[in-house]
Specification:
It contains 18 helices and 14 strands. It is an alpha/beta fold and 480 residues long. Helix 5 (104-116) packs parallel to helix 6 (133-144) and helix 9 runs parallel beside helix 12. Bound molecules: uridine-5'-diphosphate-xylopyranose (2 copies) and adenosine-5'-diphosphate. The site of adenosine-5'-diphosphate has 22 residues, from helix 5.
Amino acid sequence: MVKICCIGAGYVGGPTMAVIALKCPAIEVAVVDISVSRINAWNSEQLPIYEPGLEDVVKQCRGKNLFFSTDVEKHVSEADIVFVSVNTPTKTQGLGAGKAADLTYWESAARMIADVSKSDKIVVEKSTVPVKTAEAIEKILTHNSKKINFQILSNPEFLAEGTAIQDLFNPDRVLIGGRETPEGAKAIQALKDVYAHWVPVERIICTNLWSAELSKLAANAFLAQRISSVNAMSALCEATGADVTQVSHAVGKDSRIGPKFLNASVGFGGSCFQKDILNLVYICECNGLPEVANYWKQVIKVNDYQKTRFVNRVVSSMFNTVSGKKIAILGFAFKKDTGDTRETPAIDVCKGLLGDKAQLSIYDPQVSEDQIKRDLSMKKFDWDHPVHLQSADPTSITQVSVVGDAYEATKGAHGICILTEWDEFRKLDYQRIFYNMQKPAFVFDGRNVVDVEKLREIGFIVYSIGKPLDSWLKDMPAVA
Ligand code: UDX
Ligand code: UDX
Ligand code: ADP
C-alpha cells in the first residue's frame, strides 16, 4: 500500500488530500500539522475550513484511509510520498521585506523530513513557492541524508476556494515538475499514477521543476492581471458613462479573451494573488529584469487604487465625512462561499473607513467576530505567520460591531458597503432596509450584486463599481 503524508492541514492540504483519499481507496493518506487545534477540528464535526462539498468527502474517508494527526514525524517517516503544504508568507523584515517569500516554515519542514526519514521518499512542493525553491530544498534534504534518495517534485495546486472540491474532482490540468533524470522521471510517474485514478492522462502535464514552479506564479499573475484590467476599465466607465458589465460582456465574447474572470470588483483578495505577484516581482528584480518587475507591480498598484477609490467614493458621497456615522459592511470574506479573509479587500476598505472615524457594523455569513476583529487589528502580511497572529489585539477595535444578519447591520445606518458577492445579498428586502436607515440612504456596491435601478426607485443613492453614476454622485466627484 502506498502511503502519502501531507505536512500542513490548511486550505490546500486538507481538501487536496481528502480528494486523493476518496479517489484512491488503496492509498493511505495522513494529513499532519503542528497546530493541535486545527487537527482537532479536522477530526471533529466542525471542520476548520468552510468549503462546499468538503464535509461529505471527509466523512466518507476519515478513519478509513484518511487520517489527521499531530504526530508529524511518525507519518513522515512512514510515507512514500510527502506533500509539503505549509505557509509561505511574505517576508516582513530583512532582505526582500514586503516582497520575497519567507521560507522559514518550508525549511523547517525539509529539515524535519531529512532527520526522520529512514527510506527513499518523493517530496512534493504543494504550496506556492518562489522559482528555484526545489533546488534549495534538495540541498537541505540530500546534505542531511543517510544514503537516502529524495526526489523533489513541484506539483502546484490550482484549486480556488469556494469551488475547491469541484476543482479537485475535475481539474483543468494537473502539473507535475521534476528532475530530467531517470530517477526524476520515475518519481513523476509515481505521482502521475496517483492522479490518474481520476484525472484523464492528457490533462496531466509533466515539465521540468522550474517550469512547474514558474507556471503557478504565472497563472496567478495572469488571473490577477485580468481583474486589475477590468477594474482599471471600471474607473474609466464611471468617468465616461459606460457600463463595465456591458464592456466585460462585449470583450469576453472574443474567444481569444474568453468570458471568465472579468467581473469588476472592489479589488481582488485571497492568499495567493498578491503574494505570488510580489514573489514574481522580487524574482524579476533579483534576475536584473526591472522592466518585467515593474509591469507586474502595476497589477497590485491598480488593485490598491481600486480599494482606495472605493473608500474615497464612500466618504466624498457622504458630505466628505463619515465620522461617527454608522456604515453597514455586508460581506467580509475575500469572495463568496468561503470563510477565508486572507488579504480580503474588506480589510483595507474597513481600515480606510475607520481611519475616517466611521462606526462599522459588519455582517458576513461565514466569518466569525473574532476573525474580523483580529484581521482589523493585524499588521499587513502578518496573517500568514502563525506566530505573529498572537500579537494582534482584537480588543483595540472599538468602532466595530459584528452582527448576525444584514437587517441588523443596516438598521439606523447612513450607508451600506457590499464587499463580498454572497448570493443572499441579492435577495435582501431592500425596501425594508431603506425604511430602517438614516436618510439620505446610500448603497456602495463593491461587487455589482444589486439591481441598481430597483434600488434607486426605492430611494437609495446607489454607487455600483463601473456603472454610470447617480446624479447625486456626479456632483460629488471622488478624489482618488
Ligand atoms: C488585431 C485584433 O486581433 C483584431 O481583432 C482587431 O480588429 C485589429 O487588431 P491584427 O493587428 O490584424 O488584429 O492582428 P493580430 O493577430 O491581433 O496580431 C497583432 C500582433 O500581435 C501581431 O504582430 C502578432 O504577431 C502579435 N501576436 C499575436 C503575438 O506576438 N503573440 C500572440 O500570441 C498573438
Ligand atoms: C486563486 C486562483 O484562482 C487559484 O487557481 C489558485 O490556486 C489560488 O488563487 P482563490 O484565491 O481561491 O484562487 O480565488 P479566486 O476565485 O481566484 O478569486 C481571487 C480574488 O479575485 C477574489 O477576491 C475574487 O473576488 C476576485 N475576483 C475574481 C474578481 O474580483 N473578479 C473576478 O472576475 C474574479
Ligand atoms: P494554504 O492556504 O497554503 O493551505 P494554510 O495557512 O491554510 O495555507 O496552511 C498551512 C498549514 O501548515 C498551517 O495549518 C500550519 O499550522 C501548518 N504548518 C506550518 N509549518 C508546519 C510544520 N513545520 N509542520 C507541520 N505543519 C506546519
